[in-house]
Amino acid sequence: MTVSPNPEGQSxxxxxxxxxxxxVRCGACVGLCPYFHFFDGKVVVMDRCxxxxxxxxxxxxxxxxxxxxxxxxxxxxxxxxxxxxxATDKEIRETSQYGGTVSSIIISGLQSDQIGSAVLTDxxxxxxxxxxxxxxxxxxxxxxxxxxxxxxxxxxLNGCIKDGEDRIAMVGVPCQMEAxxxxxxxxxxxxxxxxxxxxxxxxxxxxxxxxxxLDAFLKKEGxxxxxxxxxxxxxxxxxxxxxxxxxxxxFPLSQIxxxxxxxxxxxxxxxxxxxxxxxxxxxGIEGWNTVVLRTDKGAEIFNEAIEEGxxxxxxxxxxxxxxxxxxxxxxxxxxxxxxxxxVRGQAWE
Amino acid sequence: MGIISHRSGEIDVLxxxxxAIARGALEAGVLFCAGYPGNPSSEIIETLIxxxxxxxxxxxxxxxxxxxLEAATAASFSGCRALVSMKxxxxxxxxxxxxxxxxxxxxxGLVLVTCDDPSGxxxxxxxxxxxxxxxxxxxxxxxxxxxxxxxxxxxxxxLSEQIGNVVMVRSxxxxxxxxxxxxxxxxxxxxxTPRFDTNAPFHxxxxxxKHKKRQKKLDQAMEMFETSSFNRYKGPTEPELLIIGSGCAxxxxxxxxEILGLRERVGILHLGTTWPLPKDLATRHLRASERVLFxxxxxxxxxNSVKALAADLGNELGTKxxxxxxxxxxxxxxxxxxxxLLEVLGEIFHIxxxxxxxxxxxxxxxxxxxxxxxxxxxxxxxxxxxxxxxxTALAWDDRxxxxxxxxxxxxxxxxxxxxxQVKSVHAMGSGLGLASGFGKLEKFGFDQPVVTVCGDSxxxxxxxxxxxxxxxxxxxxxxxxxxxxxxxMTGFQPHPGTGTNAIGDRVEPIDIEAVCRSLGVDVISADxxxxxxxxxxxxxxxxxxxxxxxxxxxxxxxxxxxxxGFPYKMRVDQERCKGEECGCGRYCTRIFRCPGLIWDxxxxxxxxDEVICVGCGICATVCPHSAIIREEK
Amino acid sequence: MMDPINIVITGVGGQGNVLASQILGRAALQQGFKxxxxxxxxxxxxxxxxxxxxxxxxxxxxxxxxxxxxAHIIVGLEPLEALRVLPEYGNExxxxxxxxxxxxxxxxxxxxxxxxxxxxxxxILIESGKRVFWLEATQLALELGGPIMLNMIMLGALCALxxxxxxxxxxxxxxxxxxxxxxxxxxxxxxxxxxxxIQTHED
Lengths: 349, 633, 203
Prior knowledge:
heterotrimer, A: 349 residues, Aspartate Aminotransferase, domain 2, 3 domains, 8-stranded mixed β-sheet, 3-stranded antiparallel β-sheet, 13 helices, 13 strands, disordered N terminus, disordered C terminus, B: 633 residues, alpha/beta, Rossmann fold, 6-stranded parallel β-sheet, 18% strand, globular
């Protein structure tokens, strides 16, 4: 992986990523310095920095497309095996979005002391979802479920590393996994800092919504109470479901699509190739997760969760795997096209 | 007993111009004095407050200048002498009442003192308030020294009573804030009993008749001016150049003439009574010289009236050569100075006065090595915390929000010390009025959040009507009242919220929150030192609609310093400080900018300047690496 | 001595410049001088520059501003401020009485501009005027009870200059009119300390 140094640092990040609206709110640049905050669903510039040394621009997954990372294999990237899993624990299954696999692995890891803590994404409510450092089962369950909007949770990782945290599990979407890889490799003390992340769990992602736009839309539509749960049921339903105080309201997906983050259209990674293991839904089979095991570490902790009785598994249907690879390849192609169209601006030219 | 209230006079004392004005009023037997604080005028009322402890006079800080004039006028209508004082901006505030008052006329001597501030040394404009004298058709006196300030103020009361109208006295920063030997005179007995004569009402009807009467009074004043001892001529009978000057510019001209050795060639007509222009006096001097230089601060006020006279008498006087604002010799912006008068006279007489060799040598030695001193809030100032919280909230909001500012120490929010958050500043209270308007633009697509800030004193002065307007019209206004319990900029005068008045009486303080609540406006308060929490509150308030008020309350750091000081001893752990490195980039010194937290150049780390730091502790929360340590004292 | 004697006292808001000038003015008045003190403080509470022009004459009350390059003495409560007024008011015969300790402007603290090396400032003043008294006065003020004692130390120094017509004792005689009883002693001491600094000064 090669990166050409950019002495312009923060200004260039602001001009080419943040001001152009293509920040995907991964949070990599937040929590390292006082100049960026993640606040209410957005990475915001607090002040202008003129430091000669700089990390923020190098770490940004949007400023650095690094096609070579993502193109090393097609489709879902390199992996050992793909399988199906779900939680055995009833409470986990009910709280979770689909099969509860991620929550189970984290709880298993915390209990066996394989990991000390995990950076997850909370449910938000009155404000946007945000990263949270989870240390026990309750914390994990508080964070279960998908919000469909970015949480900037790498900022929490940055913060807890500064506070001395070790053996951290990081759960995040593909852009966050990519940023994490960059942080470890490119920061002068990256190995020392991010070597403390002992497990990376990637979440499948096709896009995320701009929280502030979604929030304004929902408020305009009369959804005043904090949302407990969001859902997009599998095709062909084409709806976006919002649950407040136990009641579901459905919106046509076409009304929601305009709030997809502009930066997501450049993403070439659906399945978080930089993770130790990646987790997503299984098309057509409700209540189960797809699990892509990529590294020894990922396989080890996954198998341990099975051995400890937190997870049950099933063979992954061959058709589904083809489908998954095709979908991932399609995202890759779309992302490449967007980049070629130059919509991403001049970030790496 | 203070010198100001010394009953017997004929002694030489060191008085500031403003003290001399106050003494002049006392020597005239003033009974009622009112004003609103504003540099360079504040010490007039402050001096009179001191005098009121020993003399039977009434003094008040009014809630604004217009009310001050109205209140003082009541004494005049009742046959007593009254004085109002203000800075130049204040005359704008009184102008509506003044222009009607001068039609109705007055009874007891009523003197209006304006202290103009050329160059805006302590102001946000440098207007020439003399323009109100012709507009209101009232006589104008311009002292050039503290002694004249005393003598003219005393005489202004007599003049006022003789013509039955207000008399204006114009001081300047360089007179108000200059101390010199001043000869004081005996004080009178202060024995007037106010009585309003219901057979002689004060109003403006019939308008045209009253207008004519007002102009007659002006003619009467002019007649007295013709022989006034405040106008003096010094110089040869037929000077090569006649200088007509007033105020400080006149004294600079006098010294310049001496320095250049022009005493035998230049005559100076020192005008103290500048409006209406004493025509006969001016004509006599115009006849004696072909060339005329006008020396006055800011507007071509004397210049224009003398030129109008010269035009009227064109046939008799012939063509004169005029040097002044119109010719470009004396600028109509910025204050005059000895250097300016030396320069202009040197040019007119082709005399080189500058020690250019020395100046050039020094300039070459120094180069551009003298950095200017940037304006800044004091160490410990709550405004730094308030603006830091505002900056944070507006950054979180991220829609290019801004602050509609107002007048007070917190005006400095336009500079980096207030993180340059303030994007508009005009008259007292205008920040609120502007915000009230911005708050109605949303339906046209305006989505920038606007925060308006206003000090406690400014709120009472003229912010209140704008808040009422916002409530009345349901405007989305977010008002932050920066309550530091003082009129800090001008010297800690009390105001309606402080619980004491000018003369030190305990009065029930007006509770700003209660006032807002009674308007039906939501109001909460927060601590500007707790920047994080305050920022969250501001962020939440920005998202709400309708009129909202947040009171940010902390004592002015200078007051706190006197009343027991601050709890912390601050230090920087230079091991932890990251300095210029990525991850900090000198955040505390470069962004937060407190004079007590400096940059240790040799080691390239931050450091506390123990001489300057007061120990408020805010900066400890600013360092991203917890290198700024606060310890209990 | 010249007539008038023109003195510039310059410093930063909060250093007690205006008070020092007033005290000097009162003492001069008691010596029979026609005294004029022009004060420039403007927006400065702290941080901004503050300058006083003091003019003593046996004949006239002069205007509030000293004409260009006609200061006989420049008292700098802060070195940068002394340097700042030099081109406008100094001349070959000017005496400088300067406190050595800088108060950094915010734009210097922020790194926008550089504060000149105080040693260099001293050298410039030496080259530009007649004599420079470079005093470590802030340190002594701290020892006397706080930075606010600085103004009386510097005033004591000014009045100890050879030939200056107002003496330290004249200053001490008016302190009781200005300070509360409890502070007179401390401030008198400061005036003496300033005088000693001049007596023992080595160029």
